[in-house]
Write a structure and sequence with these properties.
Elements lengths: L4 E6 L10 E6 L3 E8 L4 E8 L14 E6 L5 E8 L1 E7 L4 E9 L7 E10 L6 H4 L2 H74 L4
Parallel strand pairs: 1-3
Antiparallel strand pairs: 2-9, 3-8, 4-7, 4-9, 5-6, 5-8
C-alpha cells in the first residue's frame, strides 16, 4: 500500500503551552507534527493510542511507530510497535522538530486515534517537582536564615548609631569642659600675673626705688 505523508505544522513559541490534540491515523500511513522550538529550550511529549474498546486491551493491529527528529535529522526518540510513549529533550538547535507517527502495514485497513501532547519551554518544566515539601522546607529554612541575618545587621546598625550618638555627645561635653578649663586657666594666669605686678610695685615703693 502506498505510504501517505501528511505534515501538520503546529507553530508555537518556546513559552507556549501545547494542549493535547487527537488525530486519526490509517494503517500504512504517516502523519507528522512539526514544532518550532528555540535553541536550549526544553521539550516533553506524550502520545497514546485511544483504546476503541475500554474493557479490553489495545489490539496489536493498532500499534504505531513514532520518530522524533531535529531540523537536521538527528533522532531524539524512537518508539516501534508501541501503543504509547514519552520523550523529553533539550533542543540544541532552533527550528522545526518533527514527530512522525506511522501505522502498521496490514491487509485489513484500520484507523487508530492518537492522543498527543507536546510541551516546550516553560510549559515543559515539571513545576510540581519544584514545589516538593522538602524543597519548600529548605526554602523556608533559607528564608529564616536570611531574616535572622538581616535582623542581626539591623540590630548592629542600630547599636552603631547609638554608639555614634554617644560619642558625639561625649565629644561635645569634652569640648565644653576643655573650653571651660581653658578659660579658668587663662583667668588664673592673668590673676597671678596681676598679683606679681602688684607685689613688685609694692616692693619697689618700699625700697623707694620708684
Amino acid at each position: 500500500m502506498a505510504r501517505l505523508k501528511l505534515a501538520i505544522p503546529v507553530l508555537c513559541l518556546a513559552f507556549t503551552v501545547v494542549h493535547s490534540i487527537r488525530f486519526d491515523l490509517r494503517s500504512g500511513a504517516m502523519k507528522c507534527i512539526a514544532e518550532d522550538i528555540a535553541a536550549n529550550a526544553m521539550a516533553v511529549g506524550h502520545y497514546a493510542i485511544i483504546n476503541p474498546i475500554d474493557s479490553s486491551p489495545v489490539p496489536k493491529s493498532h500499534n504505531i511507530t513514532c520518530h522524533v527528529t531535529s531540523p537536521h535529522g538527528a533522532d531524539y526518540h524512537t518508539g516501534k510497535n508501541v501503543i504509547s510513549g514519552n520523550f523529553a529533550f533539550t533542543a540544541f538547535e532552533a527550528g522545526d522538530y518533527m514527530a512522525c507517527f506511522s501505522g502498521l502495514d496490514q491487509t485489513l485497513e484500520t484507523t487508530v486515534t492518537i492522543d498527543f501532547e507536546w510541551k516546550t519551554g516553560v510549559a515543559a518544566k515539571d513545576w510540581s517537582n519544584v514545589a516538593k515539601k522538602g524543597q519548600i522546607e529548605y526554602m523556608e529554612f533559607e528564608l529564616a536564615k536570611m531574616y535572622d541575618t538581616v535582623s542581626t545587621i539591623h540590630t548592629e546598625m542600630f547599636h552603631l548609631r547609638m554608639r555614634e550618638e554617644e560619642m558625639q555627645g561625649l565629644n561635645r561635653s569634652t569640648n565644653t569642659i576643655m573650653a571651660t578649663l581653658g578659660f579658668f586657666s587663662l583667668l588664673v594666669c592673668l590673676s597671678v600675673a596681676g598679683l606679681q605686678l602688684w607685689h613688685l610695685k609694692s616692693f619697689f615703693e618700699r625700697k623707694k626705688l620708684l
